[in-house]
């Protein structure tokens, strides 16, 4: 057993097949009589748990994680044709029903999205979510107030100055072209000390979008909200409780769509370069 990693092997189950050693990204698992990790190599572990996941008999545990507590792989994959159709039919939704989603359901989706890959297996993506109507209304008002204050002072410069016009539209007509009156908002961020904090956050949100779309929920990647909390008014970031040492990946609106699209758009074409090295 290794103390730091809590690397343990059940001798009654281990067949010494060597799969754990062969699949270790850092190559630090040694095959003697049983798999083991030398104490001086423990710090090289990525904590990816591949060794536990690949073991066919569930003989190996690490980091206090027991194989019997892991989700079994049923090897049943989503229908490729339906998956392709869902991706091609995905639309940016700007009309939402007022109905809010169940908090437990939202948390389940976010928990699944947290399995998304991260650079160096940092696993540091943090989801800041608004799941209540009143909170969403309050935050919407805060953002528009910040835009008004900065716009009146002439502090919003091109190319973002159009947002001041959106604030005026909201102020005079109640038309919301920033939040689109969506019931929910999620923002993904990660510690700036991570290897790829922004990229990790974007990947996690992409996983989340696929999950919610598969459940009939609409989404909108909203760069204007990200800009408001990241660049316009840091008090907005503080109000949301986003950790100060985090880099924000993106903001996404979501909720039950109040519109249906009977067909997909038609692509303008793909851009592919096929590499041939001589």
From TrEMBL:
Keywords linked to the UniProt accession: Iron, Iron-sulfur, Metal-binding, Oxidoreductase
InterPro entries documented for this protein: 4Fe4S_Fe-S-bd (IPR017896), 4Fe4S_Fe_S_CS (IPR017900), Nitroreductase (IPR029479), Nitroreductase-like (IPR000415)
Record bears the keyword Oxidoreductase: yes
Sequence ranges assigned to domain 4Fe-4S ferredoxin-type in this UniProt record: 5-34, 35-65
Single GO term (MF): oxidoreductase activity
Pfam families with a match to the protein in the record: Fer4_9, Nitroreductase
Entry similarity comment: Belongs to the nitroreductase family.
Descriptive protein name: Nitroreductase
